[in-house]
Amino acid sequence: MAAEMALLEPVSKFNTKIPQISNSRTPCSRFFTIRMSATTTPSQSARKKNAGKKEIQETLLTPRFYTTDFDEMEQLFNTEINKSLNMAEFEALLQEFKTDFNQTHFVRNKEFKEAADKLQGPLRQIFVEFLERSCTAEFSGFLLYKELGRRLKKTNPVVAEIFSLMSRDEARHAGFLNKGLSDFNLALDLGFLTKARKYTFFKPKFIFYATYLSEKIGYWRYITIYRHLKENPEYQCYPIFKYFENWCQDENRHGDFFSALMKAQPQFLNDWQAKLWSRFFCLSVYVTMYLNDCQRTAFYEGIGLDTKEFDMHVIIEVSVRPQIYSPSIKFYRL
Length: 334
Ligand SMILES: [Fe+2]
Ligand SMILES: [Fe+2]
Known about the structure:
Elements: E1 14-15, E2 36-38, H1 42-47, E3 65-67, H2 70-76, H3 87-99, H4 111-118, H5 121-151, H6 157-182, E4 186-188, H7 190-196, E5 199-201, H8 204-231, H9 244-263, H10 272-295, H11 297-302, H12 307-319, H13 322-325
Parallel strand pairs: 1-2, 3-5
Antiparallel strand pairs: 2-4
Helix pairs in contact: 3-6, 5-6, 6-9, 8-9, 8-10, 8-12, 10-12
Bound molecules: fe (ii) ion (2 copies).
């Protein structure tokens, strides 16, 4: 996942614990904390073991992790039950994912640390927040896709493997962003996040709507920033944006996969309730994106973008132009 899907908003809470990355487990706590850890020495962190921990209440604009009805998912992807599944299309998608176009793309260099050291004052803080929010959004996708890959293995190994390969992509994206945080002497505690965050339940139909939108929005956000900074290199203040061109192709592939998934579930697209729900999701995701971005306009101005124009461009590309090029998703429009 790339975009902060409805409703995703990481929060900076700093403490001085060394990050503990552990395996994912389904968390269920009512509140969550996103722990940021300063990358200090073990002795420092031991002294300040519990410093900075806070709990915050979820709101509509709070970042979320997602879970779903995996039994229903298994039925949806059972080729015995669902005759609309175009397995040839999924096989082709699987080959594309296996190619792993970005296997060697995410390699850092010394520019990162140097650029981070130059970022000072309010812009530095807003950059940290950008890295943190993006990392959380990517990690949210990793967890969901990883679980879907695991749960669908028996029912539909092809679809399951695609989910697993998408989780590979998202883990790579989240890891790269977390490495970016290390340039600012910070790290997001992803292991803690996995265990402590509240997971929001969406039925499969809504998972499809929301993740499709998230991936396509992510693609358009990344490519728009990349193209803008290529044309205006004076705003290129941190090298991570140079990676967005190839990176966003991962998100585009993920979005295409969800588009194929929805085509295989015509009942989620064609009746009047589906049309209303898909529009509702569209609207709520866009409103949330706009509200979140307006709160962080300093970031967009910092890289030379007008926040409102940027968001409008993304919305038009995701929801208006596809009507022309891709009739299969024609009712994702405002
Ligand atoms: Fe991603
Ligand atoms: Fe993605």
